[in-house]
Amino acid sequence: MTENSACTSLTEEVALPTNQLRRSLRLKDGVALTISNVVGVGIFTTPAIIASLIPNPTAMLGVWIVGGLLAMAGAMSYAELARAFPRAGGEYIYLARVFGPAAGFLSGWTSLIAGFSGAVAASSVGLMAYVGEYFPQFASTRALWSFHFYLGSLTITPRALAASAIILGFGTLHVFSLGKVKIVQNSLALLIAGMILIFCFCGFTFGHGSWAHFNLSDKSFGGMNWVLALIPVMFTYSGWNAAAYMSEELHDVKQTIGPVLFIGTILVVVLYALLNCLYLYAVPHERMSSAINVGDMTAQALFGVGNNNFVTPALIVALMGSISAMTLAGPRVYFAMARDGAFIRALSRTSKRFGTPALAIALQALWSVVLVMSGEFEQILLYTGFAIMLSSGFAVAGLFVIRWKELLRSSTARIRMLIPAVFVLSCMAIVFNAILQAPKTALVGVALIAAGVPIFMLSRRANASGAVSDKEIGAGETIE
């Protein structure tokens, strides 16, 4: 090993300027991030909702494939956006560059208050609920201490303490060792994918199921059922864009980001299709529609065993991978906002030794802990769920703005934009349906998002002369 290669391999010892992130992620790291961020509790529970809306086994599988194709359309659109704007931040960067700083900030603000922080809180509490099947003391909701104040209350329970410890533990790891984070992330992604594949292989090979369950049903359903079913399906696929938040840290991002998003998303689509086929093989469609957890019911039907044998361990692994992935991706949004002068300036600082956005990671971890203690994470996710889909839709719509002149003069360009157009229209349909179904909930969500406007205005005023341009950031340092 040469002296130079020895130096560059010691990623924890290389000092970088602030406002820069290391290019330390490769194809396998991005793919693992995608798998970990997508595969979670939803694929074990959502199929029951789909079965109740689509009373036809073949059509039910079709909805999952359509959802997967929409996720693929989004992934390919995000790859183009990441090539156009190869910086950290995901939707924040795309919206800020195309529609203006305020649009980008509101997207990033939603990610902070709910999109990532709320999801981390929910996943951590869910993780403790499943761990509690083996260690009940970690799942106890007995109040140890409660503090009430004007806007709400904070309650400390054993489950809240354990969930907070998980959040802070992952946060600490992500601050001090990106190299170890990659090992953990890749291992968790490989483990959950392997567990699903083994479950499917054993189920189809040795399980007590029947292909007769795939026979067509004579029950009718309308086109609106498809639209309604696509909503939970798309939320189950959400997270396919995780690597876009990290694009600044990918080696040769313009060449790598497309394969990362494509491979990661297509692997998830394959895993989801296999699992849904296994569910139908194990359980008749009508029984599936009444299940609380289809994974539990499938394990019982195939092998005569309870969920502790497979489903619970798989959920624990999936939730740990999801928490780690969101701890990796989310803080890059707040880091990018601060670097642009749209948020608290200190959040744009990276650790000189570790090259990580330490303060941004700490902010998300602490806010997630507050949400755990307050118990409001479910409500805040419910209120802002439509806005998360809205951000993705508008981000992809930015491609039409970027390529407007090309679209006017080239029919080939217009054909190529059909896939982004389908994704944008699907997002808008889901958003409008969510608003129509629960207008009061959406209104509260709008109020929560609008609460970020004063913070944006104050941050812009305070940082008026301190924004960092693309040229100042440069290419970053490549670390092996």
Commentary on this structure:
The protein has 23 helices and two strands. It has helices at residues 3-9, 27-38, 42-53, 57-84, 91-99, 101-115, 117-131, 158-176, 178-206, 223-237, 242-245, 253-282, 285-288, 294-303, 311-339, 358-374, 377-402, 404-409, 411-416, 418-437, 439-450, 452-462, 470-473, and strands spanning 145-149, 152-156. The model is unreliable at 1-16 and 474-480 (pLDDT under 50). Helix 20 (418-437) packs across helix 21. A hairpin with a 2-residue loop joins strand 1 and strand 2. Helix content is 71%, strand content 2%. It is globular. A two-stranded antiparallel sheet has the order 1-2. It has one domain: Amino acid/polyamine transporter I (Up-down Bundle), CATH 1.20.1740. With 480 residues, the protein is mainly α.
Q: Which features characterize this protein?
A:
single chain; 480 residues; mainly alpha; Amino acid/polyamine transporter I; two-stranded antiparallel sheet; 2 strands; globular; disordered N terminus; disordered C terminus
Short description:
This protein is mainly alpha-helical.
What is the 3D form?
Answer: globular
Summed up, the helix count is 23
Query: What portion of residues belong to β-strands?
Result: under 5%
Secondary structure class reads mainly alpha
Q: Which ranges are low-confidence, i.e. pLDDT below 50, for 5 or more consecutive residues?
A: 1-16, 474-480
Instruction: Give the CA-CA distance, first to last residue.
Output: 13 Å
Number of strands: 2
**CATH 4th-level superfamily:** Amino acid/polyamine transporter I
Mean pLDDT: 86
Strand order in the largest sheet: 1-2
Number of domain modules = 1
Rg for CA atoms: 22 Å
| CATH architecture assignment | Up-down Bundle
Biggest pleated sheet: 2 strands, antiparallel
